[in-house]
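Hey,
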Amino acid sequence: MRESTIQANSTHTEKPSSLITKEEGVGNRNTALSATLLYAAIKLIGLIVLSIWSASNQKSAYVLLSQRWDSLWYTRVAEVGYSFSLQAPDGRNLSSMAFFPLLPWLEEMADAAGPWSAADSGLAISALASLAAALGLYRLGEHVQSPRTGVILVCLWGALPVSIVQSMAYSESLFVALAVWALLALLQNHWMTAGIISCFAGLTRPVGIAVSFAIFAVAITTLAKNGVESDKKTRLKIFASCIISPLGAAAYILWVGYQRGDLLGYLKVQEGWGNGFDGGIAFAKFISSSIHESNALAALFLVAIILLCGWPYRVAWKQNQPLALFVYSVVITIMAMGASGYFGSKPRLLVPAFPLLLSLAIRMARARPIYVYVTLSVMIIGSAIYGAFWLNGTGPP
């Protein structure tokens, strides 16, 4: 017997919306603000630990957050466009076209509006986007289950082991902000809003197609169930949402193909970076080689990641969570685990898979408060320490 019944496109409340009082509405707004401020406090703890750790190593926390790894590439796109490329020592051509354009566009606009640099703008955009994402995650948890679930979901996402990327001039925070609000709009049957936001998500990261898949899945089931009964205006909105949703990602990929004179140009750009999609073959080979080389600890860790990715789906199915969230998470997970790039990037690639945390948030919302406080406190402290260690070491690949 399933744990709860959660309709795909309906708000889970204990009373009809028409009976919600003005005081309850104010209470929900206050809870949403509290959840967002709580997320900001979690990020502040991580930044304080990072600053102390970096200073002890004669490094700048600001540089680590804004001017290294992918953040440098986004800044270069903002400053010089997509003309920049780099020849790697092994002969590979690293092109800036591997990076989707929305974040550098925003950095360029912010840079032009004031005396700050594109790197400064990247940090500011990431910070604001992460707060928008936190608010959206709260609303999602509240919509699916309860305000308490929403607060816990925000904390879980902010306390992920690799959540330091949410504070970097990376595109993760911007993408999650767009993805969560697009999915929330979809769950509330705001088809056009979902489609438009999804289009922008597709301009942010390749995994923007996960939002499009979620829209397609809900559209198909909705039309199959209510196609004859639904009015023409609703059907047009559904079709329009499905058309608009993938346009962002499709437009950029086609543009790259045009610039390189090859329809598959974007895939070849990714090949230059050693990235691609092989269905997990490279990942399986890495696990196999780790075991063969007696690196059992690494292999055990990787297997644990796979199992942890599978558990939330089983719980989500039992909880009858919305189809949109299920499809979105599946696509994100497949793209992350099936990528042929460096295995160490997989935890970071799973940061946008926030619905995987919803199953845990729902269960924690039913637990005794003391257990929730202890669990989240341990996660927050562990995340802050690991984030500081990570950035002062190899950093996010």
